[in-house]
UniProtKB/TrEMBL annotation:
Gene3D superfamilies: Tetracycline Repressor, domain 2. Residues 1-28 are annotated as: Disordered. It comes from Actinomadura citrea. The keyword Transcription applies. GO terms for molecular function: DNA-binding transcription factor activity; transcription cis-regulatory region binding. Residues 48-67 bind DNA. PANTHER family: HTH-TYPE TRANSCRIPTIONAL REGULATOR BETI, HTH-TYPE TRANSCRIPTIONAL REGULATOR RUTR. It holds the Pfam family TetR_N. InterPro entries: Homeodomain-like_sf (IPR009057), HTH-type_TetR-like_transc_reg (IPR050109), HTH_TetR (IPR001647), Tet_transcr_reg_TetR-rel_C_sf (IPR036271), TetR_SbtR-like_C (IPR049445). Keywords: DNA-binding, Transcription, Transcription regulation. The keyword Calcium does not apply. This is AcrR family transcriptional regulator. Residues 27-85 form the HTH tetR-type domain.
Length: 202
């Protein structure tokens, strides 16, 4: 029976192997499409699907199989960025002291803010409102994870709340590229200092 493991040899049939290869190729194509779209999106009307396909070196038919519309692609670019941002919090806490992890995560927030700004400018209002609503919870949980680690270590002020941080970092997505490059690192550094527990200033 083609497509199943041979009970005697334990070998996987060629059809299963080829199916796995196709799935792996499809996943790689999807990741390449998302990265190209992330690099190319620059506000309303400026992301062209043919430009994304060309940047990936794939046919437009392949792109459309993954993302039937421009809006679908942009929405997934944003979701992917949120997933990466949220996943960064526990990784950083595993290798950094809590306050240092928070500062490093804020560096990642600056890149997220740029993608958020460009994607939200390029999609319909109903789409970006839905994206924002669904991303708020996971991002808030990531912030709370970082703050809780800092509070436990005594390096983050006890009254700091995730919502405070989200309100403050949301302004980054309102800055243009020049201002984000010029002011972003300083603003985030000020935010880290504002979250620092008083006895850890020295």
């Amino acid at each position: 029976m083609s497509g199943y493991t041979d009970d005697l040899s334990g070998h996987v049939s060629a059809s299963v192997q080829s199916g796995g290869t196709r799935r792996a190729d499809a996943q790689r194509n999807r990741e390449r499409i998302l990265q190209a779209a992330r690099d190319l999106v620059r506000g309303p009307g400026e992301l062209k699907l043919n430009a994304v396909a060309k940047a990936c070196g794939i046919g437009q038919g392949t792109l459309y199989r993954h993302f039937p519309t421009r809006e679908d692609l942009l929405a997934e670019v944003y979701r992917h960025e949120v997933e990466d941002l949220v996943a960064a919090a526990p990784r950083l806490l595993a290798t950094h002291r809590p306050l240092d992890a928070l500062a490093a995560w804020f560096d990642r927030v600056a890149a997220y803010a740029r993608v958020k700004r460009d994607v939200f400018a390029a999609v319909e209002a109903a789409t970006w409102r839905d994206l924002a609503a669904h991303s708020l919870g996971p991002i808030g949980e990531a912030v709370e994870q970082l703050l809780a680690a800092g509070r436990s270590a005594g390096t983050v002020r006890a009254d700091a709340e995730a919502r405070d941080v989200i309100v403050l970092i949301s302004w980054l997505s309102r800055l243009d590229d020049a201002e984000l490059d010029a002011r972003g690192p300083r603003l985030l550094s000020i935010l880290v200092d504002g979250l620092r527990a008083e006895h850890h200033w020295a």
